Amino acid sequence: MQKRVRRVPRPDYIIPHPESGAAYEGVADVKNSPYFKAPDFFTMESNDRGLTILTNYPTYQQTACYSCGPAAALTVLWYFGVTDYDEPELMRRMGSSGTPNERGEGGTCTAGMCRFFEEIGWRISTSLCECRGGERIFKDAAAFRDFVIRNLRAGLPIMVENMRFGGHWRVIIGYDTMGTETTADDVLIFMDSDDVCDHCQDGYAVASAEEFFHTWRDIGALPPDQRIQQYLIAYPPDFKPREE
Q: Smallest Cα–Cα separation from 95: which of 76, 67, 118?
């Protein structure tokens, strides 16, 4: 596999929408912020103190207000060395929409993202295969923790959608148990294509694992059967997930 880049390059022909993450261009950055720290997540490695992370995971800032799904998928493609797609093509193939339908749904649904990866021959694991409607897949934060850590240890990033910004896809690339049994202090590390809220637009974001778990639902952007605990794991057919 080729050496990974820190940031997926954006072609010059893609002009960011004025309200997109890419248009911010670091305007909200604060050097040595007294409120937010900015570790180098790109070079960070897993350790025996509770951190499991995908080292050298690339980032990308979305150029449309509704393209978080394709932007998340683009980084997954690049992580696995597939670099011949761009954000607009993924938006088209995934059926992304910036115009809400009569029910107020828009953006990129889980089914559209799954369809793209299936079309290119990738293997997928998704919430669509687990349940439909309002039933939760993971009953508590501990079950969610085990699911995340298991997949990260296998070398697999996890695309997830929750109510952030009214509906937002990100990629889980790290999980830290902080060396304790409780999930109360656990931390998630994301690739965030709209990374404008932590004084450092490096494309990475952190959140309380429990807070994310309890807000892991959509509030109307996705179809009714794709609103609870949505996730997608996709990887090339020749990739062999690592076993613990």
A: 67
pTM confidence score: 0.95
- pLDDT tens digits, residue range 168-207? 999 999 999 999 999 999 999 999 999 999 999 999 999 9
* DSSP for residue 15: P
Does a structural domain hold residue 154? yes
Residue 36 lies in a domain: no
Does residue 118 belong to any structural domain of this protein?
Answer: yes
Q: Does 39 fall in a domain?
A: no
Which CATH number goes with the domain that contains 131? 3.90.70.10
Give the residue numbers spanning the domain of 75: 55-235
pLDDT of the residue at 220:
80
Write the CB contacts of 214 (distance below 8 Å, at least 6 apart in sequence): 141
Q: Closest Cα to residue 165, out of 20, 17, 41, 7?
A: 20
Give per-residue burial for 122-147: e unless 16+ CB within 10 Å, then b. Answer: bebbbbbeeeeeeeebbeebeebbeb
How many domains would you assign to the chain? 1
Decide if 59 contacts 6 (C-beta within 8 A).
Answer: yes
